[in-house]
Design a protein that fits this description.
membrane; 68% helix; 2 strands; transmembrane helix; transmembrane; 3 helices; mainly alpha
């Protein structure tokens, strides 16, 4: 139970960070080329400016699900450490 808890505690956060950094690199590449990033359609546009939309608003299931899995992992770690062998 402890190993599963540690896996669920760490892995969702790492995957979430990876997805966020990938998204951020796409936005930076677009801005460096002189474009404007369309957050809703996830594409670079040079015709007009687009408003900023937070990552949490664009991917609520990924963010909330990852955090819920991390909390579940924390509870499993606590239970695994509390349980006597």
């Amino acid at each position: 139970m402890l190993k599963l808890g540690l896996l669920l505690l760490v892995l969702p956060g790492m995957l979430l960070m990876g997805a966020y950094l990938y998204d951020l690199s796409l936005v930076e590449a677009c801005l460096d080329s002189g474009g404007s990033w369309d957050y809703i359609e996830a594409r670079c546009d040079t015709e007009r400016q687009h408003p900023f939309v937070p990552y949490m608003a664009r991917h609520p299931l990924l963010v909330n699900g990852g955090m819920l899995l991390s909390v579940l992992g924390l509870l499993l770690c606590i239970a695994g450490l509390y349980r006597r062998r």
